[in-house]
Amino acid sequence: MKLFQQLLVAPAALGLLAPVAAHAADFDLSAVADYSPSKKEQVTSVTQFSDVYPTDWAYQALSNLVEQYGCVAGYPNGTFRGNRAMTRYEAAALLNACLDRITEITDELRRLMKEFETELAILRGRVDGLEARVGELEATQFSTTTKLKGSTHWVFGAAKYHGKRSDFNAATNGGTSFSYDLRLALETSFTGKDSLVTRLRSGNMNNIYGGAGVGLFGQEYGVDTGNAVVIDRLFYSFPVGEDFTVVAGPRVRMDNMLPVWP
Questions:
Q1: Span 203-215, pLDDT tens digits
Q2: CB neighbourhood size of 154 (10 A)
Q3: Domain ranges of the chain
């Protein structure tokens, strides 16, 4: 399994696992300072700790591996947070990433592998399961370059008339109504920086009062296509240098081009 794949799924796997640990209150922290480097075999096993601390031999051994083999090249910030504690599963994930780059098995490495044997086995099992699920999603994905997004608005209303000529008004304008606005957007990117947007739209909504009215009473999501599917948006945008973006198309609005819309 590649290092990048391991680092990619490790956070998700860590979130599914419950750390097997005791609380720090179960032991005397002051006793840790009594150990010297020459007595590393006498150091309390990290299985008794809820986290692996920078003062633990396992933490220091992992730090040495990171510096020697660059095991965190795939981390988001590319650095090893060597100044704070980590959980046992985080330590196991880091050790697992380093194993792919290590060319020589040392006594210290054997000790680390023995120390995190349980966590490594659980982590690798979880990673294998996640890889299988990712493979299934990739095999059934809509497209490698296009995302499909959609939204629907439904409005159900009713009107009843009273007073003079209520029967006539009710017969011509009363009753119930069911309106909708459906949008399906295809967002395509060929380079990762450009964007081709094609939006299909259908609806039977008009003005808020169902008539011509004035723009003040118009609905933002209201559109009347006669229940037909039409192309509502069609434009292509791409960057030019670092400061400019070109937007062009037969169906584009100002709010699709401006970074801020009042």
A1: 887 655 544 545 5
A2: 10
A3: 3-139, 146-257
